[in-house]
């Protein structure tokens, strides 16, 4: 348009995130995007830099408000930071004269500017950090300022050991617990985020101390009452934090799990002896005084054999295997002390059975502890995206030990139901593992409910389930049935394709994940009803399914070139920082469109969403659906369709080859002539 001083102007998207158009992103502009002419980022940065220093309160507030929204744009942020704009923000916070709305805009702008990673968090002054901490520690501060301050501290903690020490010293755990009891869900979430950041950045010893303190303060009950059972539904981010809290808590057992028993440790030997004494108290006391050392030793060995140790003369040998190490001994001692009647009944019942059929308590306990460690992933690092926590974990003190107490009694019950002998030990433990995993998958809300359900799932129920699964497999293996399967496949695959495209039309909420942390930024993507265009755009937290018109960005399906998944995606290559990426890699996919360097990058919220989206995009690209979900859906639909088709053949065995067709009869005189009947 031949405007004079053209460098003072820039184009900017008119809706959505109002990003400036630059040389690097100009080729991302889609047909139909509405752009507006505005002042250039450097002019705007200069104007706001002056505006936030203004003595006029209204000018200053408006400038800070505009700064908070523009700082999301990387081009503007670069210009503002290069003018030493952060220094002005520091001074507004450090002087502490401004409060309320002005301070909220300042902190929001600071958070957005730091998000771009141009400046290290370690450059922050002590005065600034103390000020942010004071907003968290003061009661008479607006909730929005407390939220922003908690968020700033959460970002700060993982970046350096020094900042972790400053924050953990200044913001007490008690203060964070107060926030967890708040009615404001956002405050709860930000406080939980900071608590998790502190736990993950702490050393093992510090983490243990923090968890012990939190246990003393009944954090479990706070979470159970105020978060899990609050009137608000649980968001994805809070579910992730609860998963991390559960994981960190269970991983405190890792130390004992990896420690073998030391036969020379008096403390450990005393624990071992206490098991024997609790079970055979009266007998031991009587015999202790009257028998010689040799006789007493053989009596002890006999009692340890009754307890189910393989090496009865030196039971410590059984506990040398790590994992489960000393954790197994801790569990046995907990069971004997907290439920002495159940413990005595287990031991005495089995020691009075015939030799072959007794259930070995110690051997079962060691193996069961190992099984529980594997099921609960003890000793494994936290996933960065998982949200699978057990509500019953927060409903019970000493969760792991209490779970063990229920399951060891289940072992005895299953052993009797199976009429097992020593040779069947591995089979019994396999059944017990199945009983536990099947029950846990139902997500019981309390240990009582878990106990009821796991006991109801007895050996005969497991056999029925196994048999149903086996029959289901066998009946689908006959040759005619396999041929029928192949015939049905194309029709059912088409049905799955339709379902995938319908899911894409409904759309999904995706989360942006940066290299530093799980971010709060969300965006939504959906397919147009005519399957011609993908619409996407940023949305606010809490928006369920935004209308298609509110999503400003779009990609025509015709312009899509290919689908990339996992390691091939550009956004996983950028931040391949090892451990963090294992779970992100499983959920990452990208669409390459137009020219090859343009990609739309996704990180699916769950594996299920990943499968549906990658399948749907493959259908749009005219390729095969390749996800594991396609196979399971196809199997389910095939099995249902086959069952319906084979209903009339109930209890009839299907031969592998079709029976021969008989020869035609020698005469056809048996046909009935209707014409005579009518006359």
From TrEMBL:
Q: What are the ELMO domain coordinates in residue numbering?
A: 267-440
Q: Which terms does the record give in the GO molecular function aspect? A: SH3 domain binding
- Residue ranges annotated as coiled coil are none
Alphabetically ordered keywords of this record? Apoptosis, Phagocytosis, SH3-binding
GO biological process assignments: actin filament organization; apoptotic process; cell motility; phagocytosis
Q: Which PROSITE patterns match?
A: ELMO
The function of this protein is: Involved in cytoskeletal rearrangements required for phagocytosis of apoptotic cells and cell motility. Acts in association with DOCK1 and CRK. Was initially proposed to be required in complex with DOCK1 to activate Rac Rho small GTPases. May enhance the guanine nucleotide exchange factor (GEF) activity of DOCK1.
| UniProt name for this protein | ELMO3 protein
